[in-house]
Design goal:
Chain lengths: 137, 137
Amino acid sequence: MSASTATTVPAAIRRWHEVAEARDIAGLNALLADEAVFQSPVVHTPQVGKAITARYLTAAFQVLNNGHFRYRNEWFGPNSAVLEFETVVDGIEVNGVDIITWDASDRIVNFKVMIRPLKAINMVFEHMRATLTAMSA
Amino acid sequence: MSASTATTVPAAIRRWHEVAEARDIAGLNALLADEAVFQSPVVHTPQVGKAITARYLTAAFQVLNNGHFRYRNEWFGPNSAVLEFETVVDGIEVNGVDIITWDASDRIVNFKVMIRPLKAINMVFEHMRATLTAMSA
């Protein structure tokens, strides 16, 4: 990582990239605030709390972070960022955004995901459901 | 609009807000580059060209820009921005992003939309289809 990147990318996002690339579950737990909320592309009701947020993000690592996954663009605000990603799962192109909000301690308090197109949402939903079920077993 | 807003909001986004608030179709056409591309929440294939992009955005004004519509957050990059919106249509809460890219003349070259949750996508898709059909009649 270049010095210029290190100074311009917010600390929470720098950590998120490290955690996502390594699928680092301990690092993920350290990065999430206790009151973290996950908002899925599929369901309106927010998933409230660090445990359930970590669970969804861990499942997403398995479903989305394959060899095709890459972040293609990023936009930064004072305490939030949008990361646009692309991947291919089951031969279907997936395009989405992670909208990440952090607190004064650079811990993630809100993680919202949107996905397009519709075909990708339906496919990711099925994979997420199967992965979350397998994690519970 | 305050002076500070006027200096920090990119010109293309300032114009987009004016056009969207007024549902100004002539203004929309002036803001779109000839090679503008629209990327829908539903379909993977991009809609290429100013005419079809204007058509989709005009339909979206009718479907989404009702009394409930508001932009709740914005992130700006050098030649692109993400605008997160919320609205309510048919009693269903719609949350989405407009990802807007502009050229050196501040004309919009790419307009991508993502929507969550799934229920909202399906409902907006039906309304968009009906509105586009009515516009063709």
